[in-house]
Amino acid sequence: MSKRKYKISVIQLNLNDVAENNLKKCISWVRDAASQGAEVILLPELYSSHYFCQSEDVDNFALAEPLYSTSFVAFSELAKELGVVIIVPFFEKRMAGIYHNSAYIIDTDGTEAGLYRKMHIPDDPHFYEKFYFTPGDLGFQAIETKKGTVGTLICWDQWYPEAARITALKGAEVLFYPTAIGWHPKEKEQYGENQYGAWMNVMKGHAVANGVFVAAANRIGLEKYIEGTEGIQFWGASFIAGPQGEILAQASHDKEEILIAEVDLDLQENVRQNWPFFRDRRIDAFGDITKRAIDK
């Protein structure tokens, strides 16, 4: 059962390095977050490598790992040692030819509380994820841990109110979004402010519409590893929001940081009592939402 109050953390990092170094780095930062009182700790999307989806290259499949191998072993031991919950986003090799963009939810005793596979897979310039990732098949979940009941969605899932709604309806108190999102450098001046603003606003909207806490952990830094391209400038700005969309903690665009905020379930209940959006949902009128388009 969830405590009425517990502390969550998002860790914002530059992860433009090899797997071994990224693992050591993340372990160190998780230790720091735990020492500051964090009880549920979130890492950025695909923590173990640079963001390889900037190109379609079969060699990048070598970055994937089978379930319960390197990442799980390392963070399972760490979670048990520290007594914290750790959300670990990783590149999963399910079998030859089937790979997922996934996240472990590792409980305080080192066991797997849950596994999430990214449901929405983008295909944009330098975000060629459809080449690598099979869409998730585990659905949207609320995962019970010894600290609280949490939901994990991943990056592109951020834009879908249906994903947030279902996860919240299943009982998630916090929506965690491990993320790898940034600007194309040549577009930043013209579009950058609106792109970043939309990203913030849609997730704050999920917090308000569902009366939940929302936490997003992004990367920082310019990742430019393909000759003849400008790379991606990850915009950081990781944040934690409360159930009215209020910003409880906010990171910079360009620094490695730990954010910590308190989840207060009494506050959440009070917000939902005063803004009873779940009560007033017209579920009898929502059937069309399952259609690809509503044709006239």
Automatic annotation (TrEMBL):
PROSITE patterns linked: CN_HYDROLASE
Top-rank taxon, per record: Bacteria
Matches recorded under Pfam families: CN_hydrolase (PF00795)
A GO MF term: N-carbamoylputrescine amidase activity
Keywords: Hydrolase
Chain ranges of the CN hydrolase domain: 6-265
Alphabetized InterPro entries for the sequence: Aliph_Amidase/BUP, C-N_Hydrolase, C-N_Hydrolase_sf
An annotated GO BP: putrescine biosynthetic process from arginine
The protein, known as: N-carbamoylputrescine amidase
Organism of provenance: Flavobacterium defluvii
